[in-house]
């Protein structure tokens, strides 16, 4: 996500689950949030690109 869209994520590997941490802040624009949501929907439908 960072290389293509400049969205910084942190992987979370836990014994009970795996995920990513996304932390928007007060300076995050609505357009940036929309771009992130669009990418998450694509990944949910198609999986992560290899």
Number of domains: 1
**Strand elements, count:** 2
The stretches of 5 or more residues where confidence is low (pLDDT under 50) are none
Q: What percentage of residues falls in helices of 4 or more residues?
A: 40-55%
Main sheet strand line-up: 1-2
Briefly note the structural class of the backbone: alpha+beta
Rg estimate, integer Å: 12 Å
Description:
The protein is α+β, with helices and mostly antiparallel strands. It has one domain. It contains 2 helices and 2 strands.
Please summarize what this structure is.
This protein is an alpha+beta fold.
Architecture blueprint of SSEs:
Layout: H1 2-5, E1 10-13, E2 18-21, H2 30-46
List keywords for this structure.
2 strands, two-stranded antiparallel ribbon, single chain, 50 residues, alpha+beta
